[in-house]
User: Fold these one by one.
Assistant:
Number 1:
Amino acid sequence: MQAKIAGLVGLLAVAGCVENTEMPVAQDGKAIFMENCAVCHGENGKGEGSMARAMAKPPADLTLIQARHGDNFPRAKVMSIVDGYAKSDMDGPGMPEFGDLLQGDLIPFDSGDGIQTPTPRKLVALVEYLETIQQTR
Ligand code: HEC
């Protein structure tokens, strides 16, 4: 009986780990970035990925997003670009939409308007990561 209870407690502990309630960190976003974005934007985000040369419109240098926006990292804008929300008027092949990839687990996140909005965990992780690679001019 004792052993059975111990086993049950162990099982619950494992289940608790699977249900990830922690906020994503930049390191999580880096892994997603390397897998999905580096082929165009380059491993360092500077736009030198292997597919970059074949593109009519070059991938943006993602380390200068903040510098291009008056030293203010535009979280909401970056998120909408990545999940495809802001791309409906795009002409020609450019940056693909990642809306599907980023489905799943939602967590509350303030993208800059002071309101905690349910946001895909992976998208938050990506934005956190991109924020850490910003360079000052
Ligand atoms: C197929 C190549 C390609 C892939 C893969 C790609 N991008 Fe892009 N990305 C582009 C191109 C090209 C642009 C610039 C032109 C445009 O807006 O379409 C761009 C622009 C952006 C911008 C806007 C930068 C600015 O300052 O306006 C962000 C942010 C961005 N990409 C993030 C990402 C993230 C995050 C991923 C991975 C989830 C990703 N991209 C994957 C090609 C790509």
Note: The pocket of heme C is lined by residues 36-37, 39-41, 51, 55, 57, 59-60, 62, 65, 68, 78, 81-82, 94-96, 98, 126 (CB under 6 Å).
Number 2:
Amino acid sequence: MKNVIKTMLCLGAALLLSGCERPPIATVQTGYRGTGMEQVYNPRTLAQQAPLNEAPVAPEAASADGPKAKDVYKNVQVLGDLSVGQFARHMTSIAQWVAPDVGCSYCHNPQNFADDSKYTKVVARRMIQMTQHVNQDWKAHVSETGVTCYTCHRGNHIPKNVWTAPKDRKYASSLLGDLAGQNLASKEAGLTSLPFDPFSSYLLDNKAIRVNGQEAMAGVGAYANRASLKQTEHTYSLMVHMSESLGVNCTYCHNTRNFASWEESRPQRVTAWHGIRMARDLNNEYMTPLTSQFPTERLGPHGDVAKVNCSTCHQGAFKPLYGAAMAKDFPELLTLAKP
Ligand code: HEC
Ligand code: HEC
Ligand code: HEC
Ligand code: HEC
């Protein structure tokens, strides 16, 4: 009997501890001394992540000499000013980044490369412009590091992390009633029961990301404290998404004694602020207008196209690919091509 109890105790302890991570755990101080702003890392997780965040080696640069793509090919609308050699290098690279398993024919009709009949080619042309736009106009976020197709795609046709508006989850005949867009452990909200779609409000619409009211006291009329409970829950859900996407704690950006205070936040919070606006811009100006190009089976339950959030680029790293500056090797992706 004693042995049975012992075994049960051991099992119980093992079960309890299996939720913990075994030491050593590393902490890195990120804020000023005494603010308790630290990052907690598990070195084993970091070691597993490192190979996933390696950038592929860039092919040797091609010569800018010789005839231009626009003079040789029939239907080049964006990359016409590249030399034929540079153009070929670009095509080989995007094939590797987006469709290494299929190659050129993922976007092309192999009988006629000028043909635009495959939707993937039409989407890819717009993606080239989107990438140029990020690198040229969103330096406040991506700095000189920039992005390439690989930042999001990593050898996949569809980037691993994208979002569409989720299907309605209404259990009219159950005791749970309407879930009100939350109350369900969801991956989007880091397995909390916070709202599972923080993206439509903030990365497509321009709703205020707010918990604290703008005034000291909840007043009346125009002076009322308008940050509702619902808004608060959505804000927290977005924050959980941001932390998970970057693989960091809240203190990577905030001093938790006052989440709202910019003075007490780290500069990374400002970068994140721009990141929110950038994701919103990409979704509204590039992704949504492409909706009609995609076959219906690629659209979400509400008919919207797959869109970008923080994890599309970051994929668990504080900087995508741990800050590897890939874009500089592809100067054709750094500035918007003149039409
Ligand atoms: C991810 C999609 C994609 C892949 C993969 C791809 N291409 Fe392209 N290709 C394009 C797009 C988009 C254009 C048009 C670019 C523009 O308008 O500036 C294009 C244009 C071309 C053209 C010009 C055709 C003409 O006459 O207008 C050639 C040639 C070409 N690609 C060759 C290739 C080769 C060879 C491969 C494989 C190594 C390849 N492409 C892989 C998207 C792709
Ligand atoms: C900021 C992230 C991001 C970057 C950078 C990016 N893409 Fe995409 N791409 C997406 C998203 C999101 C989709 C929509 C997913 C889907 O197809 O449903 C997509 C879809 C595509 C598709 C359609 C895939 C399919 O099978 O439906 C092609 C082709 C493509 N991208 C090519 C490119 C090329 C080429 C580049 C670089 C010039 C590029 N992308 C850069 C996010 C990105
Ligand atoms: C990568 C940086 C970053 C991380 C990590 C982060 N936040 Fe934020 N947080 C921001 C930014 C930026 C804003 C302001 C958004 C805006 O106004 O557009 C914000 C706003 C907030 C607000 C609203 C404050 C107000 O003005 O009412 C709260 C509360 C908050 N964050 C809590 C959290 C919590 C809790 C976590 C961890 C789960 C977290 N944040 C993780 C960057 C971050
Ligand atoms: C188009 C790809 C892309 C998207 C989408 C994106 N980021 Fe970034 N982010 C980057 C790149 C590239 C860098 C590296 C810039 C550099 O080297 O300074 C970066 C850097 C950052 C940093 C600075 C990290 C540091 O330690 O300096 C923060 C914070 C950040 N991103 C937060 C976010 C948040 C939050 C979102 C979603 C709202 C987001 N990012 C969406 C590409 C992206």
Note: The chain has a mean pLDDT of 88.
